[in-house]
């Protein structure tokens, strides 16, 4: 076992080595597609700034929405493992040093993410909102609040009884800060109000802080496992990866959907896959988030129809490529091989479920822009038809075709 004082660095290095191996394997399967896609995005972004962006486009609101999400989404990496021998460290100061290194590492990574987003958005900022000095000041403010958000998130993970209001307060605070910042009204009375509010949040978190040296190991391990599972699910769309865990959640508000498939033999796998989708943390969570985020993105891009079309189908694609994970969750269960059902029924039932999910998402995503756009037709109608066609092609053609390609045919000896 590595020395406890060097354990975090060792695990971080091992994680980066494993991640680089997966990245290289994915790059080999995609060939030049990522580079071509990046070039296409750069060309579209430049054309957006130079030709397509109308004068009345709400740049400040768009930047506020993007940076609110960037500030609020935080995955605190600790590299903890289930049944970790580190939990038995005899010296509490060793545990504290480990967590300090973890916090410093996460702060650097999260600040780099904010900086990368601000660099990407800098042409839009400088063209519509301010000069280079204003951009630098905005970066400093955002980096400061990103570290503060990381501190809040860390204490949320340490809390013995976490509550959903913690996330609501953090998201709301970030929304107000970014709105003030990108509307040019932050450096004044809002700054004083923000400082007072931050002081209240710090006092609130310190009152809820557990005893010194106490860590909610189960929550930290669950957070780390969920993060690793996301990386594996993404990589599994391109290469074969090991089976990883997935948290089960009882969503009582959605269980009524399980009454719809008739309890017949031909619906066996469909019923199993539907219950899996509704009960597991992912891909249900990512489907819900992408539906909401795509709908909001469409609301903000009413004056940019080409960009709205790209965002709509990008959201559908990002959901679709993660839905086959529903079947992979059960791929090691032995009763699948014992139950007397045709093997091809697994693929057929999964295709039916994915088809239904994508049909619902492609429709629900358009409800918000339909209610807010001044002239929603005929573009939204065309998007709806295109979304249904995409759902049909992906679920009823691509999934069976992908399953046939991955099937291993045993050779005779």
UniProtKB/TrEMBL annotation:
<protein>
    <submittedName>
        <fullName>ABC-2 type transport system permease protein</fullName>
    </submittedName>
</protein>
<feature type="transmembrane region" description="Helical">
    <location>
        <begin position="21"/>
        <end position="45"/>
    </location>
</feature>
<feature type="transmembrane region" description="Helical">
    <location>
        <begin position="187"/>
        <end position="204"/>
    </location>
</feature>
<feature type="transmembrane region" description="Helical">
    <location>
        <begin position="132"/>
        <end position="152"/>
    </location>
</feature>
<feature type="transmembrane region" description="Helical">
    <location>
        <begin position="103"/>
        <end position="126"/>
    </location>
</feature>
<feature type="transmembrane region" description="Helical">
    <location>
        <begin position="306"/>
        <end position="326"/>
    </location>
</feature>
<dbReference type="InterPro" id="IPR010288">
    <property type="entry name" value="EcsB_ABC"/>
</dbReference>
<keyword id="KW-0472">Membrane</keyword>
<dbReference type="GO" id="GO:0016020">
    <property type="term" value="C:membrane"/>
</dbReference>
<keyword id="KW-1133">Transmembrane helix</keyword>
<feature type="transmembrane region" description="Helical">
    <location>
        <begin position="283"/>
        <end position="300"/>
    </location>
</feature>
<feature type="transmembrane region" description="Helical">
    <location>
        <begin position="57"/>
        <end position="76"/>
    </location>
</feature>
<dbReference type="Pfam" id="PF05975">
    <property type="entry name" value="EcsB"/>
</dbReference>
<keyword id="KW-0812">Transmembrane</keyword>
<feature type="transmembrane region" description="Helical">
    <location>
        <begin position="377"/>
        <end position="397"/>
    </location>
</feature>
<feature type="transmembrane region" description="Helical">
    <location>
        <begin position="353"/>
        <end position="371"/>
    </location>
</feature>
């Amino acid at each position: 076992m590595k020395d406890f004082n060097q354990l975090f660095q060792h695990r971080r290095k091992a994680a980066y080595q494993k991640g680089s191996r997966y990245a290289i394997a994915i790059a080999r399967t995609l060939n030049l597609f990522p580079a071509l896609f990046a070039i296409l995005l750069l060309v579209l972004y430049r054309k957006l700034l130079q030709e397509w962006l109308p004068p009345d486009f709400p740049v400040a609101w768009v930047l506020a929405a993007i940076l609110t999400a960037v500030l609020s989404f935080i995955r605190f990496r600790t590299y903890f493992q289930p049944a970790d021998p580190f939990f038995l460290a005899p010296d509490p100061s060793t545990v504290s040093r480990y967590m300090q290194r973890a916090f410093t590492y996460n702060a650097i990574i999260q600040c780099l993410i904010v900086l990368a987003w601000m660099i990407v958005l800098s042409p839009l900022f400088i063209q519509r909102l301010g000069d280079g000095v204003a951009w630098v000041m905005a970066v400093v403010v955002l980096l400061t609040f990103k570290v503060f958000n990381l501190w809040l998130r860390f204490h949320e993970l340490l809390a013995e009884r976490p509550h959903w209001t913690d996330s609501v307060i953090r998201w709301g605070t970030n929304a107000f800060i970014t709105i003030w910042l990108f509307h040019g009204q932050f450096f004044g009375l809002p700054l004083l109000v923000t400082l007072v509010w931050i002081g209240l949040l710090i006092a609130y978190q310190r009152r809820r802080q557990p005893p010194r040296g106490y860590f909610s190991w189960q929550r930290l391990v669950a957070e780390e496992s969920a993060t690793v599972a996301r990386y594996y699910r993404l990589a599994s769309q391109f290469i074969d990866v090991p089976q990883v865990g997935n948290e089960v959640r009882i969503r009582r508000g959605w269980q009524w959907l399980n009454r719809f498939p008739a309890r017949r033999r031909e619906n066996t796998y469909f019923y199993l896959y539907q219950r899996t989708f509704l009960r597991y943390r992912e891909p249900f969570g990512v489907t819900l988030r992408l539906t909401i985020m795509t709908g909001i993105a469409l609301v903000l891009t009413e004056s940019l129809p080409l960009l709205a079309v790209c965002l709509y189908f990008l959201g559908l694609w990002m959901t679709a490529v993660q839905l086959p994970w529903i079947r992979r969750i059960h791929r090691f269960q032995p009763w699948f091989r014992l139950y007397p059902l045709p093997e091809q029924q697994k693929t057929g039932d999964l295709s039916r479920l994915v088809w239904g999910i994508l049909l619902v998402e492609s429709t629900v995503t358009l409800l918000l822009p339909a209610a807010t756009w001044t002239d929603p037709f005929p573009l939204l109608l065309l998007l709806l038809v295109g979304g249904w066609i995409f759902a049909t092609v992906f679920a009823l053609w691509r999934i069976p075709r992908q399953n046939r390609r991955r099937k291993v045919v045993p050779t005779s000896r």
